[in-house]
Structures are given as C-alpha cells and as structure tokens.
Amino acid sequence: MVLENYRKVRGEVDEVCRKAGRDPEEVLLLPVSKTKPAEMIRELYDAGVRDFGENYVQELRAKHEELPEDIRWHMIGHLQRNKVKYIAPFVYLIHSVDSVELARTIDKEAAKCGRTIPILIEVNAGGEESKFGLTVADAPAFLEEIRELEHIKVRGFMTSAPFVSDPETIRFVFRDLYKLSLDTALKNHNNDLVNILSMGMSNDYHVAVEEGATIVRIGTDIFGARDYSQK
Ligand SMILES: *Cc1c(COP(=O)(O)O)cnc(C)c1O
User: pLDDT tens digits for 161-182?
Assistant: First the structure.
C-alpha cells in the first residue's frame, strides 16, 4: 500500500515536471515517515528508496539504529541545540536551520565527528506567526553571518507553506523562496552549490514543483494520516 502510494505521488511529480518543462530527476520525493513504524519504511527501502525525512530527534535515532545503514536520513523538524549531538554522526541533510546559534552548534558537533554537515536554511516564507524560520529579507545577512563555519555547508532553503484549502493562494510563498535561491546563487562567488529548494507537502506539492521545488516532503499521501493520540 505504502509503495503504491509512493509510486502514485512519484507519477504525479513526474507529470507536473513534464508539463512545466522540468526534468523529473531534479526533484527528490522525500517520504516523511514521522510517527510511522519501521516496517513501512522497509517496504519502500526494499523497492530502492533511500531518502527518508523525520521530525523528532529521538525517533530519528531509534529508526537509524533499527534500519539499514545506507538510508539517507533528513532532519526536517524543529531542532533544539542540545539534541544536535545525537544526530550529527549520521544525519544526511538538516532542513530546519533557523538561527545562527543552531548553525554554530551543528558546526561544532560536525567537527567533533570529523564531518561537514549539509544544511538548508528554513525560511518562513508564508509569514505565519506559528512557524519557525527566518524571513526572506533576513536570509542574506544570515548567510553572511554563518559563512565562516567550516563544518556546515549551506545547500539551499526550506519552507513550509500555510495549510490552505486552495494551494493556488500560496503559490507566492514558493515563488518567493525560488527568487531567494536565485539571488543567493548569483551572489555566491565561491561556487558552493546552493541549489536545493525543499518545499511542497501532501497538500501543495503540485504547485511547489511548478515553482521550482527540488525536494518535496510527503507524509500523509504516502503513509496515510498520522495518529498522535498514542504519543
Ligand atoms: C510532517 C511534515 C511534512 C509532511 O506533511 P504531509 O502534509 O503529511 O505531507 C513535511 N514537512 C514538514 C516540516 C513536516 O513536519
């Protein structure tokens, strides 16, 4: 069932790409497995899927222990500084960096592990008060401020758009983030690759892909609705 859902979403992403004149290979479909059991992940793993997104450090650690070593784990949820050390040894990409202090902590923990951790800057492009992330306007100064950190590598931006019934009304959120990434790439003189745009969830990924997403983070449409009542 999970694999069937994954293939259906993948097919839709490919279709949107074709219509928008984009190469489907530019877009990573990232299954978001938070609150879902390891068996569901394994079903996709056995079909060749290697990238998975998780929101909670403890759950991420437990699944990393339990599941095959070659899974690329993406941390997409809000990250507390005192928990960075638990995921620093293995995390593949952190999508949710929203403060200089957090960037410094990731840099320090990455150094301890002898690695450089790729990160995305989380931008609250929709301007919602309840959401984490920088404003689009603050992003350039933020990038400047963390520039000297040698054990993190900024690879792009992430946003979560407001949940709305008609995703057309939030197209501007994705467009603003795309513009930000273009501006950043233009200003980027040292040739680092800043080309990842993590945007689009079950509710709005069609629009996000039309506007240039390179990672869509899909939970519900692959794994079904989440049940938080057990937590
Ligand atoms: C849970 C979550 C998702 C997936 O959301 P769905 O609507 O279930 O697809 C994507 N991104 C973040 C940051 C999330 O917390």
Answer: 999 999 999 999 999 999 999 9
CB-ligand 1 contact for 158 (6 Å cutoff): no
**Domain map of the chain by residue range?**
2-221
* Range list of H helices, the chain: 2-20, 38-46, 57-66, 84-87, 100-112, 139-145, 171-187, 205-210, 220-223
pLDDT digit string (tens) for 101-149?
Answer: 999 999 999 999 999 999 999 999 888 888 889 999 999 999 999 999 9
76 Cα to the center of ligand 1, angstroms: 8
Rounded CA-CA distance 195/14 in Å is 19
Pocket test for ligand 1, best of 217, 218, 221, 231 (most atoms within 8 A of CB): 217
Model's pTM, two decimal places?
0.96
| Residue recorded with tokens 């290697």 | 50
Distance 228 CA to ligand 1 centre (A): 14
In the CATH scheme, what architecture does the domain 2-221 have? Alpha-Beta Barrel (3.20)
Identify which of 29, 201, 228 to mutate to test ligand 1's pocket (most ligand atoms within 8 A of the CB): 201
- The answer to whether residues 200 and 174 touch, using CB atoms and an 8 Å cutoff, is yes
